[in-house]
Design brief:
This protein is an alpha/beta fold. The protein has one domain (38-65, 91-237): P-loop containing nucleotide triphosphate hydrolases (Rossmann fold), CATH 3.40.50.300. The protein has six helices and ten strands, in the order βββαββαβαααβαβββ. The protein has helices at 53-60, 83-93, 109-117, 126-132, 148-160, 178-195; strands at residues 10-21, 25-37, 42-46, 68-73, 76-77, 94-97, 166-170, 198-203, 214-219, 222-228. Strands 6-7-8-3-9-10 form a six-stranded mixed sheet, sandwiched between helices. It has a four-stranded antiparallel sheet with strand order 2-1-4-5, covered by helices on one side. β4 and β5 (76-77) form a beta hairpin. α3 (109-117) crosses α4, α3 runs parallel beside α5 (148-160) and α4 packs across α5. It is globular and about 55 Å long. The N and C termini lie far apart (38 Å).
Length: 240
């Protein structure tokens, strides 16, 4: 399904997530978060460690469920969805990129991407996905033969090879040096611009916010501010 222009792809209302430690300790990882995420946006979720960024990302991706509140995807309620529905949502509509690459060492870059294309309904060819992240020359290399930045770009290719509507990125540059991090962010930026994929990037690095259409700041499980950025800065020009 494709959302109409300016219509929310993901809509969250009053999301809370409460964890209990022992009988008396309650931790509110999310505390009433409401937001709309639009097709084709690049959104940065910015906040310190413990602000609720990863908890929110996991709920948006169907990896976790809120304690209360609602989440919908193209108008479909995910909050009360059964596991079969959530599995289909994760498989068909969402690509995940994490700080650690989770590549299979015994498979080449092409084969790592093909793991996803083999189960997707409308996938890209693995070579096409790798070309989008400028790895056409490394198709048949194993992870041990790739740099950290190249491995992360294989992970990006794997995430986008199923043509997802949503790309969720959890600290994708956290394990990388600045130069390599910019290369990885440029790959995410290209996916967002060329394919029109909603990209949500969580980070504690304020410099990365300059490449976003919107910056959503979180603190203590709440949205503390939302800033629109009318003039996105190319990832290649970021300095931190």
């Amino acid at each position: 399904m494709t959302a109409p222009p300016h219509s929310a792809l993901l809509r969250a209302r009053d999301l809370t997530k409460v964890y209990h430690s022992g009988a008396a300790v309650e931790v509110r990882a999310l505390d009433g978060v409401s937001l709309d995420l639009l097709p084709g946006e690049l959104v940065v979720l910015l906040g310190a460690s413990g602000s609720g960024k990863s908890t929110l990302l996991n709920i948006l991706g169907g990896l976790d469920t809120p304690t209360s509140g609602t989440l919908s995807y193209l108008g479909q309620d995910l909050t009360h969805a059964d596991e079969k529905t959530l599995t289909a949502y994760r498989r068909e509509s969402v690509g995940f990129i994490f700080q650690f690459y989770n590549l299979i060492p015994s498979l080449t870059a092409r084969e790592n991407v093909a793991l996803i294309t083999d189960i997707a309904d409308n996938p890209m060819d693995p070579a096409e996905a790798l070309a989008l992240v400028n790895l056409s020359a490394r198709l048949d290399h194993f992870p041990s033969q790739l740099s950290g930045g190249e491995q992360q770009r294989v992970a990006i290719a794997r995430a986008i090879a199923k043509n997802p509507d949503v790309l969720l990125c959890d600290e994708p540059t956290g394990a990388l040096d600045v130069r390599t991090g910019i290369t990885v962010l440029s790959a995410i930026e290209r996916i967002n611009l060329d394919l029109g994929t909603l990209a949500v990037v969580i980070t504690h690095n304020a410099a990365i916010a300059e490449m976003a259409d919107r910056v959503i700041m979180l603190s203590d499980g709440r949205i503390s501010d939302i800033k629109a950025n009318p003039t996105r800065r190319p990832a290649s020009e970021l300095v931190w």
